[in-house]
Design a protein that fits this description.
- The structure holds two protein chains of two kinds.
- Chain A is of the alpha/beta class.
- Chain A is built from nine helices and five strands.
- Chain A has one domain: 5'-nuclease (Rossmann fold).
- In chain A, strand 1, helix 1 and strand 2 form a beta-alpha-beta unit.
- In chain A, helix 4 crosses helix 5 and helix 7 runs antiparallel to helix 8.
- Chain A is globular, with a radius of gyration of 16 Å.
- The two termini of chain A are about 30 Å apart.
- By secondary structure, chain B is an all-alpha fold.
- Chain B has a domain of about 55 residues.
- Helix content of chain B is about 70%, strand content about 0%.
- Classes of the chains: A alpha/beta, B mainly alpha.
């Protein structure tokens, strides 16, 4: 199993999913950067995180100066592109993903877009909720990808666009 | 850095569709009934998808803001 690092946007959506704990079947440890933890205030999210920390399936990723510096540079660079920029917490995750070969978990469009247009980050593996559900289904932890994606969207109130769904059109018929 | 211009054009369309989804699902009666700070933050979020700045406008945590946007204002996360 591999390690992952998550940003705020992924966490907020994912913990609403009734089968959220299944994610620990596919990652050894999911790291939460300090700057992401600092953004969280709601009881539901904090309970999910504290349980994961207790079980050892989650860990806090420290605010390391060299990663922080590179993340800030990435934020500035993304602001020169005429689409939604990447914010610091997502940039931090992308830098960690690139340097340590961690999978980046995010629902933030700015981060997902950056991976596709910036060749320096094209090698970073970025997964969204829909991708995690697909992997869980392929590994037989879920019975139906289509039904589960509908449940996920209903429970999390996250709606995937046509561009997101078309990648999985063969499995959504 | 050499940016992939074709990809940028694709993402412009992607973010446009995401904004349309947020506009379509939003509970406008709820949004319009809110005090200015919350109303403006929700409208900003619908137009941009930038939940972090929207949360700052309200003084709420990011997760608290998104919970309100989803559960009370009917705005799904999309991008």
């Amino acid at each position: 199993m591999v390690n992952a690092i998550t940003d705020t946007s992924f966490l907020i959506d994912w913990i609403r999913y009734s089968k959220s704990k299944l994610i620990f079947k596919i990652f050894s440890i999911i790291y939460i950067p300090e700057n992401v933890l600092n953004e969280i205030r709601s009881e539901r999210t904090l309970i999910w995180i504290s349980e994961g920390l207790e079980e050892g399936s989650l860990a806090i990723f420290p605010e390391l100066p060299d990663i922080s510096r590179e993340a800030l540079e990435l934020v500035a660079r993304s602001r020169r592109v005429p689409i939604r920029p990447v914010d610091y917490p997502e940039a931090f995750c992308l830098v960690v993903g690139r340097r340590l070969n961690f999978i980046v978990l995010t629902e933030n469009g700015g981060a997902i877009a950056l991976k596709s247009y910036d060749p320096e980050y094209s090698g970073v593996e970025v997964l969204r909720g829909i991708d995690v559900i697909y992997r869980l289904w392929r590994l037989n932890y879920l019975n139906s990808f289509k039904d589960e994606l509908e449940l996920y969207q209903r429970e999390t109130k996250h709606i995937y666009s046509r561009k997101d769904l078309v990648r999985y059109s063969d499995y959504l018929k | 850095m050499s940016i992939n211009e074709d990809k940028i054009r694709e993402w412009v369309e992607y973010f446009r569709e995401a904004r349309e989804i947020r506009r379509r699902y939003a509970n406008w009666d709820f949004i319009k009934s809110q005090p200015p700070k919350i109303r403006i933050a929700l409208e900003y979020y619908i137009e941009t998808g930038d939940f972090r700045t929207a949360a700052k406008i309200t003084g709420m945590g990011v997760d608290e803001f998104l919970d309100m946007a989803k559960d009370l204002a009917g705005i799904p996360t999309t991008d």
